[in-house]
Structures are given as C-alpha cells and as structure tokens.
Prior knowledge:
- It is a single chain.
- This protein has three helices and eleven strands.
- The protein is α+β, with helices and mostly antiparallel strands.
- The chain has a single domain (35-168), classed as Umud Fragment, subunit A (Ribbon), CATH 2.10.109.
- The strands form two sheets. A seven-stranded antiparallel beta sheet has the order 1-2-11-3-4-9-10.
Amino acid sequence: MTIGNRQPWPRFLAKAGLLMVITLAGGYWFIQNYRIGIDPQLEKCIPGYTFYLVDLNDKHIERGKIFAFRSRGVAPFFSDETWMVKFVRGLPGDHIEIDAEHNVKVNNEVLSRGLFLSRELQVDPAQFLGSATLKEREFWFMGLTDRSFDSRYWGVVHEDQIIGRAYPLF
Length: 170
C-alpha cells in the first residue's frame, strides 16, 4: 500500500475491533489459568529467581517440583493466605524426621542440615525435633537454602492450600 492510498475507515475499524477482541479473549484466558508470582524477599529460598508463572490448573503434586501454596499459621512472619513457592519434598506416606543434629530427613534421606532460623524465630531448636508420617493430603515443602523458612519450621501444607505448579521465569 502506498502512502496516498489509505484503507477505508470501516475496514480499519473492523480489523482493529477483531484484534482487540482476540487480545481481550487471550488475556481473559490467561488470567483464568495462570498467575505471575513475585518473590519480594532479598534472601530467596530458591536463589536466582524472583518471578514465577503459576499454573492454576496443575495441582498434580510431584516430588521435586515447585508449587505455589497459601500460607497458614506462619504469623507474624507472613500473613495467612500469603502465596509461597517451594519445592515439594514429602508426599503422603513419607516419613519426616528432624533429628538431634538438626538433620532434616525425608524417608531417611538427609535433605538439609540445620535449623538456622530458630534464633530469629526465638524458638529453641529442640522444639522442631521429632518425626512423623505425612497423612493423606499433607505435603512437606522446602527451599534450597539453609535459611529457607519452610516446613521444618511450620510443618505440613494441606492439599487445600495448594494453588498450582510454579515455573521459575527469572
């Protein structure tokens, strides 16, 4: 098309309207199925990532995958319903143990050593020691760092808290 030959306004408006409908429909579909999660903390439990794509439809929990869930009972550090993102480390039926040397074990495999946040939480580390078997609909979540505020401090996450699978973006 040359500069002097413009398309008629009705044709232009029809194309623009169609493009707007497609864009709005795509946006609506996206917000019905996904969320963008942002980790504002300076010290990340999954280092190197601040933004996550959360698939609201993928709640098939798999060990070693990252999931978003709503916090419960972790005040005053986080309000209830705060979105958290961690790795699934324990599934229903798994045996969880935190021993006297502060080793965090799932099915006798040491996943972490230490209860480094107990001082900041102002709780005696002995309060976190013990063992249990995860019940149906209970999961054990952990970050990758020793200073991750995770299940070793507040226990299990229940299935109704799960938001969806999270994919680190950047």
